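Continuing the series of single-chain predictions for the mutant panel. This is the parent chain; the variants come on the following pages.
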Amino acid sequence: MSALQRRLPLGLRADAVELLDGDCLSLPEIEQNLVDLARLNRLPGGTATSLAGIRRLLAPGDEARILDVGTGHADMPLAFAECGWPTVALDTNPDVLAIARRATAGEPRIQVMTGDARSLPFEDETFDVGHCSLLVHHLEPAAVVGALRELRRVARRGVVVNDLRRGLFPLLATAASVAALGRSHVTRRDGIASARRAYTLGELDGMLATAGMAISWRSSRWMPRVVTVAT
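Parent structure:
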């Protein structure tokens, strides 16, 4: 990145800490935030685009086992299960895990487990597809590369990354979305921080290459959220 680019607004990734990454939130605050995020996942670039990315790695009618890392409210695993794909939903936060278990209690195709993306508790090629949504921007670059390497290790067919991209339009679009759809002060505050902490697509591409993967498909690069499929 040139000196001029670094001086531009959003030229550098912000180091703001999101409230969800701290330990100061109550369980009701966390749950309301996760409900908001599930609602935002229904917008373009969310769940439907992750499903499209996963299908890019499968042949029609294929059975698939999915790993969803940083699962949040587990709304995406529920969508995967509706497609007939058994899914393991992973998170590190005990409160988030409790919420996810409650949300998926009636779906036998979903297993909710404790686990860190940077050190996945699974053997090589345990899954067909590794998926993460709105996780990468929470991590520093070295941790992103470590998580991508782990997803590559455990996923036989490929990895799907759904996340915000950094830029002025994504920031404005995210601000409008969380203002309109966010019921929680955590969502409204963290939504802006997420957009400022997000990586550019060029930065993500570099981290994928470092993790030993190449891009095989990408959703519209002009949307605030972009899904990248890598093998």
